[in-house]
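Changelog-linked ticket: heme C example.
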Amino acid sequence: MTGIIALISWFIVLLVVSKYTYTLHHRMKKAKEDEDETVIHKIARLQNIAYTLVVTLSILGTLIIYYFFIKSTIYESHFFEWMNLVIRWMHITFGIAWIGASFYFVFLENALNRTNNVRDELAGNLWAVHGGGFYYLEKYKLAPKKIPKDLHWFKYEAYFTWLTGFSLLIVVYYFNAKSYLIDTTVLDINAVTAISISVGSLIVGWIIYDQMCKKLIRNKLVFTIAMTVFLIFFAWFYSQVFSGRAAYIHFGALLGTLMAANVFYIIIPGQKRMVAAAQKGLTPNPEDGKAAFIRSYSNNYFTLPVLFVMISSHFPSTFGNNYQWIVLIAITLGSAGIKHYLNAREKEQLSIWVLPISILLLLSVAFVTSPTPNVDGCKEEVTFTQVNTIIQNRCVSCHSATPTDKIWKVAPTGVKYDTKEQILNLKDNIFQRVVVSKDMPFANQTGMTEEEREVIECWINQNAKN
Ligand code: HEC
């Protein structure tokens, strides 16, 4: 019943929005006849929003209706796989555009020529050659006297990265909360609680961070310390409520949310106020520029840690560790340190120690997470036959050319253990997931025992005889 009501309301909203786009179309025609520039501009913006709504609503509606038809059939996991693929693809594309712009503009800022032949109204200039062309850029101290008609803004990369990222969180973690988000050995909660913690933590995180920026930013040292405590708290907090993998993703989602919210709530509104003031012939408030600059620079420091988290689910030795939140903090600080070194270098400020210390910090993580050999515990020689029996019983229902699992109809990430050769080739990978991070079999659905893990561990320790 609720399904039908939802369907009808969705259809009505879609109709209303489509009707509105027609109205806009007619208003636009009239405005063009009247040659009224401001009205044309305004309607064009409304048209953009309305078209985006029509497209989004149609796609979302179709997907949701489709989902109800295929729910609990063999098509369900295929549906999620494609949703995952498409959204992830969009997410990385927008993310690359956004982080690319962040790298580029911070580089510009750092590398500006501020001294030689710089006009009074300028902060600096920069020559560059790229793609066979020579470019010359100027940065104004505050704003040009007249705002040019075509002014490029950089905001949709940020918004769409966040939107696709959040959609991915829904598709992967909220829909499969029991398998991916919750680990009952960490905290026994139900899906609704887990999802509420997830969403709530992003909102609370932003509120705290925003206040910290506003109150403490004048004092760089205090701000850096407060920020480190903030990061440590959230890395620890997530490790106490979610599965290892979900804890990492949430830490990244939190940083990504802070970055996007910085753009949405601080940087863009500030820039809008500056443009509006300049258009009226007033001097823009330099505080707006400063606040936007600080947020933009702090976003730049988040980029490398966020990128690590986004690929971390491929590396269970990081999140499948007893000290997973400390590992996460060390990697966050180490990679932010590398970004700091790069920024300082672009500013031609020599910083000898930042890079080696950051790299050592990252290497120490690899050292701390390495497995401890257990040769003494292995009394007897393990044979391949023993190992093969375990793998056929515990893994092949998913990792096979012909899986028998209810959900995975194709071998996950193409990993198959049907033949001796396949198992031997992938023995290190098996060791990582079965012995080191212990996150395979998936959610231990096939009920692998500790003894079986030890057999595999001994087999590898004895150089995997066959
Ligand atoms: C219920 C299905 C299921 C079972 C049973 C299962 N796996 Fe997996 N496995 C998956 C899924 C899903 C993934 C991909 C997601 C991930 O990497 O966490 C995966 C990924 C892997 C990977 C990572 C491959 C890569 O691309 O790096 C390895 C290694 C692995 N499994 C080994 C095993 C071993 C060894 C067993 C048996 C002890 C096993 N799995 C049992 C579902 C399963």
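Closing comment: Example verified and attached. The chain has a mean pLDDT of 91. Residues 391, 394-395, 397-399, 405, 408, 412-413, 415, 429-430, 433-434, 440-442, 445-446, 448 surround heme C (CB under 6 Å).
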